[in-house]
Design brief:
The protein is of the alpha/beta class. Strands 2-3-5-4-7-8 form a 6-stranded mixed β-sheet, with helices on one face. The chain has a two-stranded parallel ribbon with strand order 1-6. The N terminus is likely disordered. The chain is built from 19 helices and 8 strands.
């Protein structure tokens, strides 16, 4: 499964993974609430959203007893957008009026005991937010991606009344559906037509990213290249406008997509200029984050940005700090492995990959082995790279491969066959 948007997941492993909070334990947890509440707000804390972690049967039973819908957050520890929702949205006071109108369930999609539910729900994009009718387990709403607290509250109000997304969010859903179905020309054309007249918000950022992705796939078509240029220009204006009401993680994604579009259009000077602004934006967001978990949300994109400006060494101190802050988490050492690879510090990269493999779980380990193979190939150890790929393929036989992991397994098999 991939974090939305999808394009960068296939780059270096460290550029696709996201630093995680401690692994789910199956206990009830309180959603992150940001800065500590003062005494006057203490009473409101009783209305904070409480998630049940990784126990669908219990959550469904509770929803049936209470006669309320079931909200499901399908997430993964590597998904920076998922962690952004946890750090900046679910604890927002604007969601408290809804806390008792739903039963709240989080599902770690990498856990083997959640694989059947992940497959039944059809999770292929992370995060995906579901509303399930507990009476017959019908999915009343499936939203792939992030939303601000205000947008999520409005969507859930509509879902509780039996209505789906409307207005800009309906356009967003339509464009995303065309992209997922491979209708790239339709996706790009709709995005280019609708984006200039959409109001500010997450839907606009999503449509721009989807449109850029689709137009980029058709870049040999002159009309698609024109659309790509137009979407990139609007995307830069939106990403650079601090008044846009979108999550910092979504703004960062948009920076990433526009930079990729500029490179596709051979506008390297524009890409380099915007990459510098992207890195500065992310450093500011990380500096202002209220907790270590919130700061680490930006690790994946900061690594990408530093690579984009040709300074991957700037990622090392922040990732070392995240590894100290979250010693059980595989994401910081995995990203360090990618940073060290970019710096040609191959022995350090191998050590970081070993630490990541020791801590990783579920099918995401395939990505760590893939990175390990990259490092070994760069070091000239083709036999070692083949052994790493064989280990990944063997491991995959014993774990459920949900979402798009079967495609990743085929990539590994093809790569092994080509390594001679």
């Amino acid at each position: 499964m991939l974090s939305r948007p999808l394009r960068r997941d296939a780059l270096a492993l460290g550029c696709a993974l996201a630093a995680a909070a401690p692994a789910c334990t199956g206990a009830v947890r309180r959603a992150p609430a940001g800065p500590a509440l003062d005494a006057s707000a203490a009473a409101a804390a009783d209305d904070s959203i409480r998630f049940i972690d990784d126990d669908y049967t219990r959550a469904l039973s509770e929803a049936r007893v209470r006669g309320v819908p079931l909200f499901v957050d399908a997430w993964a520890a590597w998904c920076h957008t998922c962690l952004s929702m946890r750090a900046f949205v679910f604890g927002d006071p604007r969601l408290r009026p809804l806390s008792r109108r739903f039963v709240w369930l989080s599902i770690d999609t990498e856990r083997a005991d959640n694989a059947a539910l992940v497959t039944r729900l059809g999770v292929s994009v992370l995060p995906t937010l579901f509303v399930v009718d507990p009476r017959d387990e019908r999915v009343a709403l499936a939203w792939p991606g992030a939303l601000t607290a205000q947008e999520l509250a409005a969507m859930l109000e509509r879902a509780a009344g039996g209505a789906g997304p409307e207005g800009p969010l309906a356009v967003d859903a339509s464009v995303a559906r065309a992209s997922r179905d491979g209708r790239f020309a339709e996706c790009a054309a709709t995005a280019a037509r609708e984006a200039p007249r959409m109001p500010p918000g997450t839907a606009l950022a999503d449509v721009l990213r989807s449109g850029i992705e689709c137009a980029g796939r058709l870049r040999d078509d002159p009309s698609a290249r024109r659309r790509l240029a137009d979407l990139a220009a609007l995307g830069e204006r939106v990403a650079s406008d601090p008044a846009q009401p979108i999550l910092a993680d979504d703004r960062s994604d948009l920076f990433d997509y526009v930079i990729g579009a500029y490179r596709s259009l051979a506008r390297d000077d524009d890409a380099g200029r915007l990459a510098l602004g992207w890195a500065a934006f992310l450093e500011d967001q990380a500096a202002r984050a209220p907790t270590a978990q919130a700061r680490a949300v930006f690790d994946a994109h900061r690594l990408l940005a530093y690579v984009a400006i040709g300074e991957p060494q700037r990622a090392v101190p922040m990732l070392e700090q995240s590894e100290r802050d979250f010693p059980a988490d595989y994401n910081p050492p995995a990203r360090l492995g990618a940073a060290y690879l970019a710096l040609r510090r191959y022995d350090d990269a191998l050590a970081a990959c070993d630490r990541a493999l020791d801590r990783a779980y579920g099918p995401r380990k395939l990505r760590v082995w893939s990175l390990l193979a990259d490092v070994l190939v760069a070091k000239g150890d083709v036999a070692g790279a083949r052994a790493a790929l064989r280990a990944a393929i063997e491991f995959a036989r014993g774990v459920p491969l949900t979402g798009r992991y079967p495609e990743q397994l085929e990539v590994l098999r093809k790569r092994l066959a080509e390594l001679r």
